[in-house]
Amino acid sequence: METTSIPESKKRRNWQNPFKRLMDNPVIIKELRGRMRGRQAFVLLTVYLGLIAVFILLVYNLLNLSNPVTWDPSARQNAGKAIFGTVVLLELLLLSFIAPGLTAGAITSERERQTFEILRTTLLPARSLVLGKLSSAFSFLFLLIITALPIQSIAFLLGGVGLAEMIISGMMLVVTAIFFCTLGIFFSSFMKRTLPATVSSYAAILGSFLILVIIFFLIAYIESYSYNSLRSNALEYIFTGILWFLVSTNPMMAAVMSEVILIDQQSLYYTTSSPFGSSGLSTLPSPWIIYVLFYTCLTLVLILLSIHFVKRPDR
Q1: What distances in angstroms separate CA 205 from CA 16, 41, 121, 202, one per listed residue?
Q2: Distance CA 16, CA 28 (A)
Q3: CB within 8 A of 193, min separation 6: which ones?
Q4: Would you call 312 exposed, middle or buried from its count of C-beta atoms within 10 A (0-12, 13-18, 19+)?
Q5: With left for phi above 0 and alpha for psi between -120 and 50, is residue 114 left, alpha or beta?
Q6: 284-285 and 270-271 as β-strands: parallel, antiparallel, unpaired?
Q7: pLDDT digit string (tens) for 9-63?
Q8: Which of 60, 72, 298, 311 has its CA 20 to 30 A from that of 204?
Q9: Tens digit of pLDDT for each residue in 141-191?
Q10: What one-character-per-residue DSSP string does the chain give?
C-alpha cells in the first residue's frame, strides 16, 4: 500500500508564506470585506485622526503661548517631545475604547444570528475562527496606528524624539491593540449576548486603568512613611517590586516611566536609580519590557481559552 508524502518544496512554501496561509482563512476575508465595505470604518478613521489632530493643535498652541517654539532650540525639542507623547497616549486611550467594540461581538453575534452552529458544522476549526476574527480586527487597528504616523512625524520636525522612542512606542501600541482585541474575543467566546460581552470587556479595561489610582495611593503611602518601618527588611524589596510591576502593567504609566528613564538615564532596558525613594531594588527593567512580555503572555493565554470555549458545546 503506497502512502503519499508532501514534497519538501511544498513544505518549505508553507513555512515561507505565513502571510498567505493567514489570508487563506475565509473568516479574515469575510470580516475585512464587511468592515471596509460600509461607511463605518471610514467615519471611525476620520474621527480618530481628527481627535488626535485637534489635541495636537491645542498642545502646540499652549506651548507656543508659554514659550514660543520658533527660534529657541530647547523649546522646539520640548514641544516635539510633548507632541509625540500626546499622540502616543491618545492612541493608547483611543485603542482601548475601539478594540473591544470590534471584537466583543465577534462570536456572540454569530450566536445571536443563529449562524454559530452552522460554522461549527463546517470544516473550519475553532482555532481558525478565533484567529480569523482576531486578525481582521487587529488589521483595522493596525491601520489606525499607521495612519497616525504622519502626525507623529511632526515631532521629528521639531526635534527631541529619536528612533528608539518610535520603535518602543510602536511596539507598545501593537501589543496593546492585540491584547484589547483578544480581551473582547475572550468575553465573546463564552457569553451568549453581545451587550454583556461588551460591558465586561470595557469593565476589564477600566479596571486596568484604575490601577493607576492604586499606584498613586501606594506612592503617597511610601513617601509618607519614607520606608522607615521597612528598612533592612525583605518586605521593602517585595513592596518595591510589586509597585514597579503595577507601574509597568498600566499602559499610561509604563509609557511615561519608560520615557522618563530614557531621557534622564539614557537607558532603554533598565533603570539604575532607586525608584520611589526606596533603598532596595535599585536596578530594575524598563517598564516597556515588562509591559510587552506580560501582555504578550496574557494574550496567548486568552487566545487559548477563547479557542477552548468556542470548541465547547453549548448547553
Answers
A1: 36, 23, 34, 5
A2: 20
A3: 108, 111, 112
A4: exposed
A5: left
A6: antiparallel
A7: 544 555 446 556 666 777 787 877 777 777 888 888 888 888 888 888 888 788 7
A8: 311
A9: 898 889 888 888 887 777 777 778 888 888 999 999 999 999 999 999 888
A10: -------HHHHHHHHH-HHHHHHT-HHHHHHHHHHHHSSHHHHHHHHHHHHHHHHHHHHHHHHHHHS--SS-HHHHHHHHHHHHHHHHHHHHHHHHHHHHHHHTTTTHHHHHTT-HHHHHHSS--HHHHHHHHHHHHHHHHHHHHHHTHHHHTHHHHH----HHHHHHHHHHHHHHHHHHHHHHHHHHHH-SSHHHHHHHHHHHHHHHHHHHHHHHHHHHHHHHHTTTTTTTSHHHHHHHHHHHHHHHHSHHHHHHHHHHHHHHH--SSEE-SPGGG-SS---EE-HHHHHHHHHHHHHHHHHHHHHHHHHSPP-
The C-alpha atoms of residue 119 and residue 131 are separated, in whole angstroms, by 14
Written as one letter, the residue type at 101 is: G
CA distance 95 to 218: 27
